[in-house]
Amino acid sequence: MNIIIRLIPFVLFLLLGVLLYRGLSLDPQSMPSALIGKSFPQFTLTSLEDESQQVTKADFKPGIKLVNVWATWCPSCKVEHPFLVKLAKDDRFSLYGINYKDNRADANQWLKYYQNPYQFSIFDDIGKLGLDLGVYGAPETFVIDHHGVIRKRFAGVLEPRVWQRQFLPLINTIEDEMVKGE
């Protein structure tokens, strides 16, 4: 009995060590989402640029879509923005923004100063669409296929290395599916 009592702290230490080791091997940018494989949620919000213009999922162009969640209060969004401006020139997909829990005037001024890469930005001032998407913060980027299905969710700065490793292969796969009529 005395030996069992002495082993309890050792066993607890081992279990804690295994849990911590497992946590270190996880990718913090890998954001599991219950929405992967499901349709992009329905929404009716206003355009960031024009508060009298309502936008919905139906306003997205056909084809592959990247939806980027951004805000002026987000320092990482400023870091990724020049790369988004470059991506917007690629005609294989359309780039849309979700301005998340932000001030409309500040966000419009920000886009004028840093260039606007988006087809349009959705103004999500209270975060309703963000909540429907399971957004934790900004920046986050979603890949939506030609059927309107969410294929990827990425939290963090979208930059060339991440694009090459994680996004470009998926874009190529979706393009192949489109050619095959899938």
Layout of helices and strands:
Elements: H1 2-24, E1 44-47, E2 54-56, E3 64-70, H2 75-87, E4 93-100, H3 104-114, E5 121-124, H4 128-133, E6 140-144, E7 150-155, H5 160-180
* Percentage of residues in DSSP E strands: 15-25%
Question: What is the 3D form?
Answer: globular
User: Largest beta sheet, briefly?
Assistant: 7 strands, mixed
Which stretches of 5+ consecutive residues score pLDDT under 50? none
Characterization of the model:
Helices cover 41% and strands 20% of the residues. It contains 5 helices and 7 strands, in the order H-E-E-E-H-E-H-E-H-E-E-H. Strand 3, helix 2 and strand 4 (93-100) form a beta-alpha-beta unit. It has 182 residues and is an alpha/beta fold. The longest helix is centred in the first third of the chain and has 23 residues, at 2-24.
Short descriptors:
alpha/beta; single chain; 182 residues; globular; seven-stranded mixed sheet
Write a brief caption for the model.
This protein is α/β, with parallel strands linked by helices and 182 residues long. 41% of the residues lie in helices and 20% in strands.
